[in-house]
């Protein structure tokens, strides 16, 4: 008898990302790059690779047009995952990735964001660090370069620009913490 095929969470998440973002060009290349980066960081830091890579594959699915409700992709992605029965932990990682709470605040979406658990731990730091070290085309970048490019792309009046005073130091602190640990390992 053939051995049963066991799908990991990361496998299932990859399939969802391919289905929802596979035709999106750079968005999918970025997502695949973040998943690869998350895998490397998880192995290096002794973290739950399956959890981290699953969250990485799913972190930007809220950009997919069938999922758009609020227009803020971390919330829209997390809502979809909750409807589909994904664990609250993974929905929370997606909802709060890369300082989403600061952007949700200026967008007036803090109540909607609070539907999800705020996983403020090393796993969430590493997911954010992976996202902030992979550029829009899936290339490896420095976090400062990525952040500056993002602000330029969104423009000076954007929600991202409005969130900058609190979000930038938050992301810098995460990069400092993760890079410190990487130097120890
Ligand atoms: Fe991303």
TrEMBL record:
Residues in HD/PDEase domain copies: 23-106
Protein name: Putative nucleotidyltransferase with HDIG domain
Recorded superkingdom: Bacteria
GO molecular function, one term: transferase activity
Keywords (A to Z) from UniProt: Transferase
Cited NCBIfam families: HDIG (TIGR00277)
